[in-house]
Amino acid sequence: MKKIIITSGPTNERLDAVMKITNMSTGTLGAVIADEFLGNREDKIESLYYISTKLSRKPRLDSPKLKCITVESTDDLLEALENLLSTEKIDAVIHSAAVGDYKGKYSITASMLASELAAYFAENHGSLEDMEKGILEIIRNPKHVVSDEHKISSYEPDLMFKLDLTPKVIGKIKELSEDTTLIGFKLLDGVPYEDLIAVADRLRIKNRATYIIANDLSQIGNGKHPAYFVGENGVDYTCETKQEIASTLEKILF
Prior knowledge:
- It contains seven helices and twelve strands.
- The chain is an alpha/beta fold.
- A hairpin with a 5-residue loop joins strand 2 and strand 3.
- Helix 1 (28-41) packs across helix 7 (242-253).
- The chain starts with a strand and ends with a helix.
C-alpha cells in the first residue's frame, strides 16, 4: 500500500489584502493523474495527498483514500510537504504544481522612492561604485513603504512592487525524505527539443529526481500535452496527452 503526494495548480503570492501574483496553471494535469491512480489503483493506495490552491481543479473521483490539502502560497505548499514528509513514510511525490518564481516583498510609490534617493544623493558624494551600492541598498530595503495590510489605493499612478524569489520547493523534497521517489516537471516555451531535454536533465540531477517530465508551452493546447520523461538514461517515455502522462506515471509507480 502506497502513500503518494500530488502537488497541483498554481501558487498565489499576496501583494496586499486583495491583489496577488499567480500564473495560468489550472491544476488539470494533477487532477487527471489523481483520477488515474484512484480509478485503477485504489486498492494499492493507502493515502493520496492532493495539495493545491482553493480554485485549482480537484480530482473528479471521490475516495476515502483521497486527502485534499488546500494551500495558498509557495511557503504554504512547502510547509504542507514538510509536515507530511517528516511525519509519514511517503512513497512518491509527483510535483506537478506550477510554483511561482516570485513573491511580493514590498510596494512603494515613485514619489516615496524618489524622496529617499534624493536625500541619499544630497548626503553622499562617493565613488560611482559606492553610489551604486547605496542606491541598491535603498531599493532592496527602503525606509518607508506602502502598507500591504489593506487594499492599496487604486488611484496611485506610480505604484511599484519589489519582488523576491520564492523557495525552490522541488529542491527540498529529497532533503526531507531521501527514500521518496520524486517526479517533477519542467515547462519551457518555444525552445529546441535538445535544449528542453538538457534543462530537464540538469534539474533531475540537481534535485535527485527519478524523472523530470519536460513540456514546451508552445506545443500544449487543443487537447495535446506533449511530454518527455527524462530519466538517467535520457528520454524513457514520450506522451501526447495528459491522460497518457497519467497512465505512464501509473505504470512507473505501480
